[in-house]
Amino acid sequence: VLFLRRLLPDAGRVMIAAACRQRLPKPWVSSLNTCSRAISSSSFQDKETKQQVEQRDDLQTEISRRTQTLKSFLTSTRRSLHQIPELMYQENKTSRYIQGMLQEHDIPYSTGWGVNKNTHVFPGEGGHGIVADIGSGQPPCVLLRADIDALPIHEQPHTHNKNFASKHDGKMHACGHDGHATMLIGAALILKQMESQIKQHGTVRLMFQPAEEGGAGAKRMIEEGVLTNKPPVDVAFGMHLWPTLPSHTIASRPGALMAAGDRFTIEISGIGGHAAMPHKAIDPIVTASSIIMNLQTLVSRTISPFESAVCSISAINGGAAFNIIPEKVTLKGTIRAFQETTLLSLKEKLNRIVTNTATSHGCSVDNIIYSPDHYPPLINDTDLYRTFSSNVGALLSKERCVRQLEYPSMASEDFSFIGQHVPSTFFFLGQGSSDSFKSDYGLHHPKFTLDEDVLPLGVELHANLALRALKKLTKQ
């Protein structure tokens, strides 16, 4: 089974499909089903010697022991960060808080990373990113990354958040970045305590990244040298808290994990007038409505059914009074796909649909503005994923497991820029409802909250991956 699993991750599905085509007897198909489930659930672990297992267990025991002492610290840190959410390129207080944590534990760092190159699009000067190296300062180098920015959402405090809700009106950590930053701070403390071991193998680089929510902060930091400064990064890991997965589970997949994505703004102009005399105006609201409906065919009628793509309009703004037809309307939305060529095709067809629809109504399109940096698809390195899968499996109880996702997510992540330069693996840390934590709200919801009980697991994951990857790189 393990042999087949290594050769062909989809072996189970192939076997069942073959059985159906050959119309084998049902008992045979049932037996193949059983074998398929065994294949699908097996991990990518290679055989380990007794000594390797003991060394692995010793390392895990030490990391786990140190992490348990940080539980209250992690909760306190996350709640402090949750109260001071800041939008991309404006993460001043957040950055200062993280710097204070690093200073307090004698972890050297540099700041000024992630300068905003597109101030005409995104407010704020940026430069709030932080990079900290722990270890010998020599190669090999493993990078761990966490994003730190928040969203323009007015928080509706959940039961869990009542006493530490956002203090910044209209801004909220609704995507778990307060948890991401907290877990990387916790990992920094553990790795600093174990620095003598790290120095024997190389360097761990911690990347606290601003402007993930559309601002391509990862790309800015890459341009500034986060991957190439000495010692250059060899491999990278990242994670995201994921409310649709059971709490304390971990999920990922080799290859494509998250979609390429771009955002757009459409500015439509008509002729304003009195709402009682619409025949003397050219109504951009009606035009915008037609554009929204026509864009529903963008994916269903222009993209192959064998490809995945999304087009969503998420904002419409125009008019301010019940009796005035406005002169202008603005639409905002996003397009997603797993192939760069498909994303480019979506843009071309969107432009055509918007322009032609507006013309047919007598309106004009002033601008169709896309993001300065669209996000590429997030592709997990297959070999690194296999290493990741076997390593983290040892952290979980028998009731929990490393899940290989059958399908990728249509969400986008600028960790994908890192994957274009170095082998990398990104994974989801489950924080869905459990016996001790109840929440039915997803990412980007004003009532979103996170399960603070998973924070120690995230710390252990960071520390384990960094140390094991360093040791493996040293042996190569």
List its salient traits.
about 475 residues, alpha/beta, Aminopeptidase, eight-stranded mixed β-sheet, four-stranded antiparallel β-sheet, Peptidase M20 dimerisation domain-containing protein, Amidohydrolase
User: What is the radius of gyration computed over CA atoms, rounded to a whole number of angstroms?
Assistant: 25 Å
Task: Indicate how many domains the architecture comprises.
Answer: 3
- CATH class bucket of the largest domain: Alpha Beta
How many beta strands in the DSSP annotation? Answer: 16
* CATH architectural group of the largest domain: 3-Layer(aba) Sandwich
User: In the CATH scheme, what's the topology name of the largest domain?
Assistant: Aminopeptidase
- Share of helical residues: 25-40%
Terminal CA distance:
28 Å
Poorly predicted ranges (pLDDT <50, ≥5 residues)? 1-24, 26-49
How many alpha or pi helices? 15
Keywords: Hydrolase
GO molecular function: hydrolase activity
Pfam families: M20_dimer (PF07687), Peptidase_M20 (PF01546)
Family: Belongs to the peptidase M20 family.
